[in-house]
Design a protein that fits this description.
The protein contains ten helices and eight strands. It has helices at about 20-35, 55-65, 80-90, 110-120, 140-155, 170-175, 185-195, 215-230, 235-260, 270-300; strands at about 5-10, 45-50, 70-75, 95-100, 125-130, 160-170, 195-200, 310-315. Strands 7-5-6-4-1-2-3-8 form an eight-stranded mixed sheet, sandwiched between helices. Strand 1, helix 1 (about 20-35) and strand 2 form a beta-alpha-beta unit. The two termini are about 20 Å apart.
């Protein structure tokens, strides 16, 4: 029996690209159906993340025109990760396997065939991994690669050059559902689920139309969210830095005593000011990092819903 596939696509203000995305993904779905890779009951689910444009009316129009398209409308904008999770958690009881991807056509939809074949070989999670970053600017390529390397150094288990283009079996989705974090970073949570995994490499294209939903400020915030959600090593680095500063202070005390004994001591306004600013900066930075973790604890204890679904259209 063919596998019932649900493709989950988060959308935020995607009216410029949505119809083209639907057109291409529909062709790909029927190709896989013809090859008996997926069931004819497979669906494409667009998740409207509180868009301010015509994205949701367009999704409803697509559904009315062809029931291969389904739609989930969130009650308000909750961010890409929450929208993606909303789609995955909503469809996990309807399908055998899901593939998540972005709506901007940068992910190569032809890689879906390879993902399904990996799944048929027994893989529960298949990651879409970029083979190169030739379409990125030098700055974006450098910062992205630095982020993945930093995550690895901090002990977070992420897949290098992988975003959110991935296949997950229904078993893997059930495992993911057991994670109750409010501060979501799916790129780090999914590897924690376990089960057999594999990768499929692909070339990432330029955005078909519209503007990127991740400007520099959001990229930096997203990166910091991932680091603080998956690792406590920053707090341990603060502790190490504190011990280092204490060691330096002992050395300074010994040097001061030596200078006094040999008669070399004199008032040092410059060194005092440098020390004050440096130590003050360390204290402020440390408080900020600890405060970030405390803020996450605060949000987790409230147990607020990660998403609220306003409407779900599906045959």
């Amino acid at each position: 029996m063919s596998n019932k596939l649900y493709v989950v696509i988060p959308c935020y203000n995607e009216e410029e690209v949505l119809f083209e995305t639907a057109k291409r993904i529909r062709i790909k779905m029927h190709e896989m159906m013809d090859r008996d890779l997926i069931s004819e009951d497979s669906r494409v689910v667009f998740v409207n993340d509180g868009s301010r444009d015509k994205t949701w009316p367009m999704i409803k129009h697509l559904h009315e025109k062809d029931n291969i398209f389904s739609g989930i409308n969130l009650s308000r904008n909750r961010g890409h990760q929450n929208a993606l999770l909303a789609g995955l958690m909503t469809v996990k009881d309807y399908c055998d396997v899901t593939i998540s991807m972005d709506a901007d056509l940068q992910d190569d939809i032809d890689a879906m065939d390879k993902m399904i074949m990996k799944y048929m070989e027994g893989k529960d999670v298949v990651y879409g991994v970029r083979s190169a970053r030739t379409t990125d600017t030098f700055f974006k390529r450098f910062t992205a690669e630095s982020f993945y390397k930093l995550m690895e150094k901090l002990g977070a288990n992420t897949v290098y050059n992988h975003a959110d283009y991935r296949l997950m079996s229904s078993r893997a989705l059930e495992g993911l559902a057991q994670f109750k974090e409010v501060n979501l970073f799916l790129r780090g949570l999914v590897p924690m689920v376990g089960y057999p995994t594999d990768i499929v490499t692909y070339e990432r294209s330029e955005r078909f139309a519209g503007e990127s939903k991740y400007p520099l400020s959001k990229m930096l915030a997203f990166a910091f969210e991932g680091i603080t959600s998956l690792s406590v090593k920053l707090i341990r680095l603060i502790t190490a830095a504190g011990f280092f500063m204490i060691l330096i202070s002992f050395i300074v005390v010994l040097y001061t005593i030596y200078s006094y004994v040999v008669g070399y001591a004199r008032p040092g306004w410059s060194s005092m000011m440098v020390s004050m600013w440096f130590i003050g900066g360390m204290i402020m930075l440390s408080l900020g990092i600890v405060g970030e973790y405390i803020g996450k604890i605060y949000l987790e204890t409230k147990e607020r819903p990660r998403f609220i679904i306003d409407e779900f259209i599906n045959d």
